[in-house]
Amino acid sequence: MRNATRMLAALGLLLWSGTAFAQGNVTFQVDMNTAITNCQFVPGTDNVFVRGTFNDFGNGADGPLSDYTLADDNGDGVYNGTFEVLAEDLNESGEIAYKYYAEPTALGWEDGADRPLAVPMDVDTGVQDFFKDGGISDQCTAVTYDLIFRVDMSVQIATGNFDPSTETVNVAGEFNGWSNAADELLPSAGNPEIYVGVVESSLASVGDSNPYKFIAPAPNGWESGDDRLYAITGNEEDPDMNGNPNVIVPIRFYNDVGPDQILTEESTVTFEVDLRPAFYFLADSSYVPGDTQTGEEITSVNGLYINGPAAGAGDGLDDWATWGPDNLGAIMTRELVDDGTNGDRIAMDSVYTLQYTYAAGTPRRIIGKFGTDGYDNEGGFGADQNFDIDNGTNVISVTFGCVRQGDGTFTDQRGPSFVPGEDAAPRYDEYIEVAEDGSSCRAVRRGGAVAIEDLGGALPTTALLEAAYPNPFARSTQIEYSVVAAGPVSLVVYDVTGRAVATLVDEVQAASNYLVEFDASELAAGVYVYQLRTGDAVVSKQLTVVR
Predict the structure, then answer these.
(1) How far is the C-alpha of 41 from the C-alpha of 79, rounded, in Å?
(2) 228-248 confidence digits (pLDDT tens)
(3) β-pair type (351-358, 267-274)
(4) Per-residue b or e along 366-385, where b marks 16 or more CB atoms closer than 10 Å to that residue's CB
(5) Shortest CA distance to 455 belongs to which of 517, 516, 514?
(6) Pairing mode, strands 22-31 and 125-130
(7) pTM of the model
């Protein structure tokens, strides 16, 4: 039993170190009465479990799920269970994440985001919930429908990603427990590139939005993106007179990739990724956000790699390579460079580059994700970059940690989670500025003891150090400067004796225009010199602090 194992482990650690790791006991209560009344849960036959970060959502090696079965001892339809939570199960806010799961019914997982719960130290606590918050349709008088699914595989056939002579395509959804092999579609008589299948289901009600996806063999696999949805209006007819009204689901292109959404000629894409948000994070925190898959701590940045279908450009590997330095981090065809070669325009400017050539037939929308040293630490689960490519030569510029979503807008709110398996967290947003309309984003330097902001704009042709503004000033002022070529940059403030009193910049910076804020509230009134050193240039100016 997991609890017993944890208790023994905790006792051993207590004897060894004097420190206990138990946080407290949590009593979970979930009201199943709506599911029972609506004929979707049968007491005494069906089971309901609680799954969360304290049991790896039922996917880890912490014991069988039967350890987390909830029981209804008094027959009131409310199922209960008390389980131990350890300190290691909590996120940085002192919370666990959890959901309820019912089987063997079609209820399955609760919908939506995980439920959060704060667990205080050494205090037993409890929570009362309604399964799916009561949003359960009535299946007591359910109608059995014939669901008619159709998928157009013409693009996959034309590009060689699907062989109709040997491969099959299936449909999955709540109607078959999301089985990837239960319901096979067959070529239609009128057009053999369109696959059709009829699935009987009584699990959907009028007005429900019901999810499904198509599945084909690799390299296609499960369709990417959000689940597809079909709806039942209640006006469906029964043309074949078998007693089941027909729900004719609109025909779809597999993965929504039609003939006008693929390249018609071989095309080259240069990916340029500004990695400064990761470097700024590392400089300010001595680590970068941990691996989304494992939570592994990362304390250095030595390289950058691409993963996903966007990386499957002729390297003969599966689209999604296994994350980690020993896996993705060992695949040289997926490594970006910052050494002035292979399309990299400026060496050592923290903009990493990779070039791929995509064959005709490649989808114009490709999915990918970047990670330092091969780790999955750019975004949370599912926070993949959406790249749109055209025929010919393409340059795609990316700010690490700023995700281009399916609708084409950018966001810095989908970074790695604080705890593996939890929702994404805005880890890099302190170092990313997103346009108000989401049309673009750029790296900025706002973190750390000194706020440095990359102003972008036209690349300077000479090193510049602007006059401080305001000047004179009492507490703080702003200084703009320009860097011509990537390299070490320092901006230091000296008093009249030549003694350095403040270092505003001391790092490698890319060629750009910058702004730094100088807080002089602890300096005595007087005249000071601030000096910029970059490459072979040294520029100095004066500022005056008044009191």
Answers:
(1) 12
(2) 999 998 899 999 999 999 999
(3) antiparallel
(4) bbbbbbbbbbbbbbbbebbb
(5) 514
(6) parallel
(7) 0.51
For the chain, what percentages of helix, strand and coil (3-state, to nearest 5) are there? 15, 40, 50
d(CA 111, CA 108): 9
Phi–psi pair at 286, nearest 5 degrees = 65, 15
If you average pLDDT over every residue of the chain, what do you get?
A: 86
Q: What is the pLDDT of residue 221?
A: 84
Contact 329, 313 (CB under 8 A): no
437-441, 515-519, 540-544: which has the highest mean pLDDT?
540-544
Amino acid at 477: T
How far apart are the C-alpha atoms of 193 and 189, rounded to whole Å? 9
* Residue 480: partners with Cβ closer than 8 Å, 6 or more residues away: 455, 464, 466, 513, 514, 515
Residues counted in the chain: 547
Contact partners, residue 34, CB within 8 Å, separation at least 6: 130, 131, 132, 134, 136
56 within 8 A of 153, measured Cβ to Cβ:
no
Give, as one character, the DSSP assignment of residue 197. Answer: E
Instruction: Estimate to the nearest angstrom the gap between the alpha carbon of 178 and the chain centroid.
Output: 23
Q: Can you read off the two tokens belonging to residue 376?
A: 């999955």
Say if CB 247 and CB 232 are below 8 A apart.
yes
Q: Which of 24-33, 64-73, 376-385, 476-485 has the lowest mean pLDDT?
A: 64-73
Hey, what are 268's tokens?
Answer: 């080259």
**Residue 44 per-residue DSSP state:** T
> How far apart are the C-alpha atoms of 533 and 538, rounded to whole Å?
5
Q: What is the pLDDT of residues 68-101, one digit of tens each?
A: 999 999 999 999 999 999 888 888 888 999 999 9
What are 526's two structure tokens?
């007087």
**For residues 524 and 522, what is the distance between their CA atoms, to the nearest angstrom?**
7
Is the Cβ–Cβ distance between 530 and 479 less than 8 Å? Answer: yes
Task: Tell me which H or E stretch contains 60.
Answer: none
Strands (E), 54-144: 78-86, 95-103, 108-109, 115-118, 125-130
Can you tell me which residue has the tokens 């599966």?
Answer: 318
CA distance 502 to 529: 11
Q: Please give the backbone phi and psi of residue 329, each rounded to the nearest 5 degrees, phi first.
A: -65, -5
